[in-house]
Amino acid sequence: MDIIIKSLGQIGEAARQFISHFRLDDRTADRPLPVFAFYAPMGTGKTTFIKAVCEALGVADPVNSPTFAIVNEYEAAEGSPIYHFDFYRIKRLSEAYDIGVDDYFYSGNPCFIEWPELIEELLPEEAIRVEIKEMEEGERVVHSS
Q1: In the chain, how many domains are there?
Q2: Which one of 13, 79, 129, 135 counts the least CB within 10 Å of its CB?
Q3: What's phi and psi for 82, nearest 5 deg?
Q4: In this structure, are residues 65 and 40 in contact, taking their beta carbons and an 8 Å threshold?
């Protein structure tokens, strides 16, 4: 799936398309929600897109990158948790183990991961890889596979 974001004003609609495609707002299904690994260079919009997705899911608290905390937990509109990770600052895999990534990744709740390449071997096999690419004219393409 590809979502093209031509301007920051379209990010809310792009987030709603992402949510709809992955059925993130369907908590009635008896299935775990996916782990999303976001790959993109610094400054491409990983945090901005994740923030838009969380807001579209009804998160009322401020959504920002958990650069220093490594993980932030938010509450979706219906009360279920959403986990947002930023592994940019970790130096060793043991740091990820220390925060209990397995508990988060296999909780059945959505996980959004920035800088997953630093913990690649810990990602669940079924994690969805999401690439954000900056195009000419400042457009962004959100590609998931």
Answers
A1: 1
A2: 79
A3: -130, 135
A4: no
Phi, psi of 144 (to 5 degrees): -125, 145
From first to last of its 145 residues, the chain has per-residue pLDDT tens of: 999 999 999 999 999 999 999 998 876 666 778 899 999 999 999 999 999 999 999 999 999 989 888 999 999 988 999 999 999 999 999 999 999 999 999 999 999 999 999 999 999 999 999 999 999 888 999 999 7
The domain that holds 131 is classified in CATH as 3.40.50.300
Domain that holds residue 140: 2-144
**pTM for this structure?**
0.93
Q: Around Cβ 34, how many Cβ atoms within 10 Å?
A: 20
φ, ψ at 47 (rounded to 5°): -65, -40
